[in-house]
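Notes from hallway chat w/ T.B., transcribed later so I don't forget. T.B. wanted the structure written out for a chain they're using in a teaching module, and asked if we could keep both sequence and structure tokens in one place. Agreed to drop them here.
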Amino acid sequence: MTIFRNGGVALSSALGGLALAWPGAAQAEELNQAANAWMMTSTALVLFMNIPALALFYGGLVRAKNVLSVMMHCFAITCVISVLWLIYGYSVAFGDGGTQQALWGGLGKAFHAGVGVEAVKSGISETVYSMFQLTFAIITPALVAGGFAERIRFSAVLIFTVVWFTLVYLPLCHWVWGGGWLQTMGFNDFAGGSVVHINAGVAALTAAVMMGRRKGFPHTAFLPHNLTFTYIGAAMLWVGWFGFNGGSAVAANGNAGMAIMATHMAAAGGSLTWMLMEWVRHGKPSVLGIVTGMVAGLGTVTPASGFIGPLGGLIIGLMAGVLCYWATHIIKRKLFIDDSLDVFPVHGVGGIFGTLLTGVFAAPALGGLGYAEGVTMASQVGVQAIGAVTTIGVSVAGSWVAFKAADLLTGLRVNLEQETEGLDLVLHDERGYNLEY
């Protein structure tokens, strides 16, 4: 049978049903080759979202003296999380925790024990299933890097990544997608509104508060050094998100197609409303504004994408462009929190609203796919709120511990002189651009 990552179970195929009903028939799950091919494609698309898409998007937003440091964060995080995932990450998130299944998956699949060539999970190769989930584990801490860009020690990034992945990402991932207590409660997060976007946004905000402002903030304008990079990275993210959301159906079916359509509509809606907000307030539309609105729309629709129709996706995107735009203004201009690349107002705020709106736009009257038996809109929104609040609490606490550990071991920040010189030279002895005329 096909098992969606949100916990819903589709009807078994007629052949599969006959096989299970036949006396003495083997009940081993069969590989769906079409789904397996789609999931391998989706896996590549999501990994592509981090290297190079997010690296280019973030790299263009920082100043030229820090472009390599941001790209280094994305690349190194990919490598560190990949190794940890093989050692214990996949097992803790998606293993069989037995009596402790509500809390964690145990260590029975550490080092991929039992995940062989013939192993099948949710109708696809378990190796492919694990690799797809790994790409989500990679991009989440990479998103956090936007909150502490241009002032953090590279060694602190590595320590934070290891501790945060272990204490924050893995438990939340298991609770929501791996058979944990939130999934059992009926919490719906189709592709990462809580596990990825709320989680990363809150962690970035925690980092910004703990580390303090960059030199010159808020009086100095920290202008993007290469908006062409940012545009290219944003375009790659848009395409990659089809694997992010569409692949979360874990099947090559209508649910995946609907998720892709809703995702696309949300990206368009978020782009247009953010662009219009800037146009009205500042007199001109900007490339930075339209691509940021796209990311806001995508992040906000992510938890709902597999439960709603395209109209719901468009409405969520239109709302995201407005909500996240004002959140960015409030965080930086009213509260003076230096979240360097606006991770919390875009991903955190978008993820929170998207998680709550999942309970609303799943209603059939609004074009959604409906609720489980006995569930109403009000009760589903209540469960969504529990999931969102849980994610915020775990992310704040775990992020504080992770950054404190990094601070105690190596220190979090470079000094002001090093910050002025730029992290590329100070930490990596390289320049992003060695131009001679």
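Follow-up for T.B.: The longest helix spans residues 377-409. Might be a good example for the class.
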